[in-house]
C-alpha cells in the first residue's frame, strides 16, 4: 500500500509518548471535529458529547501503537466516531420510537425574521429528517470537509454512490428549505 | 468526466451540473482532479456560474446550522481520560519501570524495604534457595502494590 501523507503523524507520535502539550493540541484539533460529527449524525447534544469523549479515549489508547503510513489518523478517528454513532442509531431503531424528539416546528416563519438561531434550527431539523446515508454523506463532505474518496471509503461505497447520496440529500434539503432566502441566510451567517 | 484535450482537462456542462448537484457551489469541496477543469468551465460558460451561485445558496443554509463547540467540562474530561489511558506526564517513566521518588516515602515503600531487610537477614543465617528469593521479591511486589514491570524492570 502506498504511504499516506498524514498531517497528524507527528502529533500522534508525541501523544503516544505521553507528551502533555501534544495531548492538549490533539484535543484542540480533534475534539471539535468529533463533536460536530456526532452532533450532526445523532442530532442530540448529550449523546454527541458521549460519542466524542469515547472516540477521544480510543484515540489515546491507539496513539502509542499507531503505525504511520497505513491510513490517516483523522480518517481512522472518523471511522471510530461513525461506528459509535451507528451503534447509537441502531439502538434507537431497536427501541423503535415514533416521532424523533425535540424537532422544532418546521413551518416557515417569515414574520419572525430569519434570526441565526431560527435558521440554524430549521437547517438542523431538515438534516435530521434526511435518510441516514444521505445525511452521513453530507456530514462527511460538507461539515467534516473530507475528500470524496475518503468519505466514500468511510461509508464503504463507491465515489459514484457517494455522489448519488449527496445529490439526493442536497435536493431534499433544497425542497425542505425552499422558503428561506439565501441572502437572509448569508446575513445570519455573518 | 473531464476529457483530455490539448494537454489540459476539459469538462462538459453536464458533468459540471452533476458535480454541482453533489458537492455544491464551493469548488474546494469538489474532487481534486476535476477542480481545474471546473474553474475553466465556470469562467467560460455563464450557465455554469449560475449553477454554482444557486448551489452556493444551499451551502450558506447548511453553514447556518450551529457548530457545537466542546464545553470546558468536556475538554477537561477528555484530557483526564488521556491520563486514565496511560498517557500524560510521567507515562514514559512508568513505561521504563522506574519507581518515582515519592514511592519510597509511602507506607508500601517502607514495607517493601523492611521485607527486603528480613530477606537479607535470613540470607545471613540460612541457605536460602533461589526459589525462596524469588518468592520474596513477589511478596515485596504485593506489599508495595506495584506491578511486575515496576519491580523487575523492563
Q: What can you tell me about this protein's structure?
A:
The complex is a heterodimer of chains A (190) and B (154). Chain A is an all-alpha fold and 190 residues long. Chain A has two domains: 1-102, Rna Polymerase Sigma Factor, Chain: A; 106-190, Arc Repressor Mutant, subunit A, CATH 1.10.10.10. Helix content of chain A is 69%, strand content 0%. Chain A has nine helices and no strands. Chain A has helices at 9-16, 20-42, 45-62, 73-95, 116-129, 132-143, 148-155, 159-176, 182-189. In chain A, helix 2 (20-42) packs parallel to helix 4. The longest helix of chain A has 23 residues, at 20-42. The mean pLDDT of chain A is 88. Chain B is mostly helical. Chain B has two domains: 3-64, no CATH class; 98-154, no CATH class. Helix content of chain B is 66%, strand content 4%. Chain B has helices at residues 13-23, 32-44, 46-64, 72-84, 91-96, 107-125, 130-144, 148-152; strands spanning 3-5, 8-10. In chain B, a hairpin with a 2-residue loop joins strand 1 (3-5) and strand 2 (8-10). Chain B is elongated, with a radius of gyration of 34 Å. Residues 1-7 and 93-154 of chain B have low confidence and may be disordered. Classes of the chains: A mainly alpha (190), B mainly alpha (154). Chains A and B meet through helix 2, helix 3, helix 5, helix 6 and helix 8 of A and helix 1, helix 3 and helix 4 of B.
Distance between the termini of chain A: 44 Å
CATH superfamily of the largest domain in chain A: RNA polymerase sigma factor, region 2, helix turn helix motif
The secondary-structure class of chain A comes to mainly alpha
Oligomer class: heterodimer
Task: Quickly name the level 1 CATH class of the largest domain in chain A.
Answer: Mainly Alpha
Report mean pLDDT of chain B, rounded to a whole number.
69
Based on Cα principal axes, name the global outline of chain A: globular
Largest sheet of chain B: 2 strands, antiparallel
Identify the biggest protein-protein contact and residues per side.
Answer: A-B, 56 and 42 residues
Shape of chain B: elongated
Query: How many domains of chain B?
Result: 2
Helix content of chain B: 55-70%
Strand content of chain A: under 5%
Largest sheet of chain A: none
β-sheet strand percentage of chain B: under 5%
Cα-to-Cα separation, first versus last residue of chain B: 58 Å
The number of helical elements of chain A comes to 9
> Considering DSSP H and I runs of 4 or more, what fraction of the residues of chain A is helical?
55-70%
Spatial extent as radius of gyration of chain A: 18 Å
Q: How many structurally independent domains of chain A?
A: 2
Number of strands of chain A: 0
Domain RNA polymerase sigma factor 70 region 4 type (chain A): 122-173
GO molecular function, one term (chain A): sigma factor activity
Domain RNA polymerase sigma-70 region (chain A): 27-93
Keywords (chain A): DNA-binding, Sigma factor, Transcription, Transcription regulation
Amino acid at each position: 500500500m502506498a504511504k499516506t501523507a498524514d498531517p497528524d503523524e507527528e502529533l500522534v507520535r508525541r501523544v503516544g509518548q505521553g507528551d502533555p502539550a501534544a495531548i492538549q493540541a490533539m484535543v484542540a484539533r480533534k475534539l471539535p471535529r468529533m463533536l460536530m460529527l456526532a452532533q450532526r449524525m445523532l442530532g442530540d447534544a448529550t449523546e454527541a458529547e458521549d460519542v466524542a469523549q469515547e472516540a477521544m479515549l480510543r484515540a489515546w489508547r491507539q496513539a502509542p501503537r499507531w503505525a504511520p503510513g497505513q491510513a490517516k489518523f483523522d480518517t481512522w478517528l472518523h471511522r471510530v466516531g461513525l461506528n459509535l454513532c451507528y451503534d447509537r442509531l441502531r439502538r434507537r431503531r431497536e427501541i423503535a420510537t415514533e416521532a424523533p424528539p425535540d424537532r422544532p416546528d418546521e413551518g416557515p416563519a417569515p414574520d419572525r425574521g430569519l434570526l441565526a438561531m431560527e435558521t440554524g434550527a430549521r437547517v438542523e431539523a431538515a438534516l435530521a429528517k434526511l435518510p441516514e446515508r444521505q445525511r452521513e454523506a453530507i456530514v462527511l463532505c460538507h461539515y467534516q470537509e473530507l475528500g470524496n474518496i475518503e468519505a466514500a471509503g468511510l461509508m464503504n461505497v463507491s465515489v459514484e454512490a457517494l455522489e448519488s447520496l449527496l445529490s439526493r440529500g442536497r435536493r431534499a434539503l433544497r425542497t425542505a428549505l425552499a422558503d428561506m432566502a439565501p441572502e437572509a441566510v448569508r446575513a445570519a451567517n455573518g | 468526466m473531464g476529457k483530455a484535450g490539448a494537454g489540459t482537462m476539459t469538462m462538459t456542462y453536464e458533468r459540471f451540473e452533476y458535480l454541482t448537484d453533489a458537492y455544491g457551489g464551493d469548488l474546494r469541496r469538489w474532487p481534486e482532479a476535476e477542480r481545474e477543469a471546473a474553474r475553466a468551465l465556470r469562467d467560460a460558460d455563464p450557465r455554469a456560474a449560475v449553477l454554482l451561485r444557486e448551489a452556493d445558496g444551499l451551502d450558506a443554509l447548511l453553514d447556518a446550522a450551529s457548530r457545537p463547540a466542546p464545553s470546558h467540562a468536556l475538554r477537561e474530561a477528555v484530557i483526564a481520560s488521556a491520563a486514565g489511558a496511560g498517557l500524560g506526564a510521567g507515562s514514559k517513566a512508568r513505561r521504563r519501570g522506574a519507581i518515582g521518588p515519592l514511592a519510597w516515602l509511602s507506607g508500601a515503600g517502607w514495607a517493601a524495604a523492611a521485607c527486603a531487610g528480613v530477606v537479607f537477614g535470613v540470607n545471613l543465617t540460612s541457605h536460602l534457595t533461589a526459589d525462596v528469593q524469588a518468592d520474596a521479591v513477589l511478596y515485596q511486589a504485593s506489599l508495595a502494590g506495584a506491578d511486575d514491570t515496576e519491580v523487575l524492570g523492563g
